[in-house]
């Protein structure tokens, strides 16, 4: 009986020690180069409204876009998250306030990289 307990204890201890050995771990993922910009010539929109685009370069990494809550009534982005390289449309509704207006949109990359702030301007009537 003591021999069985010894064998079981030895096997158990061996499996614990074997399971705790350090394996070669995969390389920690690194962020892809990230950039976001407004499509050339579309940062300022007329009072009648229109569409612009955000050009995102993210490789295989993810990103998300934040429009301030108080601007969402007139500035909308249909795709606010994704991954990879993409051109994301930005729709600006007609400006009936009579005053110029501005919205700052944040494009946030993964890997805790800093957000890219993009400013869209719209003329008043």
Polypeptide structure, described:
The protein is mainly β. The chain has a single domain, classed as Immunoglobulins (Immunoglobulin-like), CATH 2.60.40. It contains one helix and nine strands. The strands form two sheets. The chain has a five-stranded mixed beta sheet, with no helix packed on it. The longest helix is centred in the first third of the chain and has 18 residues. It is rod-shaped. The termini are far apart. InterPro entries: BACON, Ig-like_fold. It comes from Mucilaginibacter arboris.
Instruction: Report the CATH architecture.
Output: Sandwich
Proportion in β-strands: 35-45%
Average pLDDT over all residues: 91
Would you list the SSEs in sequence order as H and E?
A: HEEEEEEEEE
Distance between the termini: 95 Å
**Regarding quaternary structure, how should these chains be classified?**
single chain
CATH class: Mainly Beta
**What structural class should be given to the helix and strand makeup?**
mainly beta
In short:
InterPro entries: BACON, Ig-like_fold. With 125 residues, the protein is mostly beta strands.
Topology:
Layout lengths: L1 H18 L15 E4 L5 E2 L4 E8 L4 E5 L8 E2 L4 E3 L2 E7 L8 E9 L6 E7 L3
Parallel strand pairs: 2-9
Antiparallel strand pairs: 1-3, 3-7, 4-6, 4-8, 5-7, 8-9
What brief labels describe this structure?
Immunoglobulin-like; five-stranded mixed β-sheet; 38% strand
């Amino acid at each position: 009986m003591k021999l069985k307990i010894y064998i079981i204890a030895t096997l158990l201890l061996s499996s614990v020690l074997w399971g705790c050995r350090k394996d070669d771990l995969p390389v920690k993922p690194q962020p892809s180069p990230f950039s976001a910009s407004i499509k050339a010539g579309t940062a300022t929109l007329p009072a009648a409204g229109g569409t612009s685009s955000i050009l995102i370069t993210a490789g295989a990494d993810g990103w998300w876009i934040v429009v301030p809550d108080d601007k969402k009534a007139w500035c909308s982005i249909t795709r606010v998250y994704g991954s990879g390289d993409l051109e994301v449309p930005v729709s600006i509704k007609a400006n009936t306030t009579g005053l110029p207006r501005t919205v700052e949109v944040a494009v946030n990359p993964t890997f805790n990289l800093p957000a890219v702030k993009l400013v869209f301007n719209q003329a008043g009537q």
